[in-house]
Amino acid sequence: MEKFTSFLKASWEEITQHVTWPPFNELQANTTLVLVGSLIFAFVVGVMDFVFENALKLFYQSF
C-alpha cells in the first residue's frame, strides 16, 4: 500500500508542478480542429462505404 500512495503523491506532484498546461483558448482551438477532422474523416469513410456497397450490388446483380 505504501508503494501505491507514493505513486499517487509522485503523480500528483508531476501533474501540478511539472506539466505545462496549454491556455484555454488553445485547448478550444485544438478541440475544434479534432472535431472537424473527425467529422471529415467520418464523411469520407461513409462515402467510401456507400460507393463500395453500390458497386458490389451492381457487380452481383450482373450475374
Automatic annotation (TrEMBL):
Keywords: Cell membrane, Membrane, Protein transport, Translocation, Transmembrane, Transmembrane helix, Transport. It holds the Pfam family SecE. GO terms for molecular function: protein transmembrane transporter activity. One of its GO terms (biological process) is protein secretion. The chain crosses the membrane at residues 32-52. One of its GO terms (cellular component) is plasma membrane. It is a single-pass membrane protein. InterPro entries: SecE_bac (IPR005807), SecE_sf (IPR038379), Translocase_SecE/Sec61-g (IPR001901). It is found in: Cell membrane; Membrane. The keyword RNA-binding does not apply. NCBIfam families: secE_bact. Essential subunit of the Sec protein translocation channel SecYEG. Clamps together the 2 halves of SecY. May contact the channel plug during translocation. Belongs to the SecE/SEC61-gamma family. HAMAP family: SecE. Component of the Sec protein translocase complex. Heterotrimer consisting of SecY, SecE and SecG subunits. The heterotrimers can form oligomers, although 1 heterotrimer is thought to be able to translocate proteins. Interacts with the ribosome. Interacts with SecDF, and other proteins may be involved. Interacts with SecA. This is Protein translocase subunit SecE. It comes from Dyadobacter flavalbus.
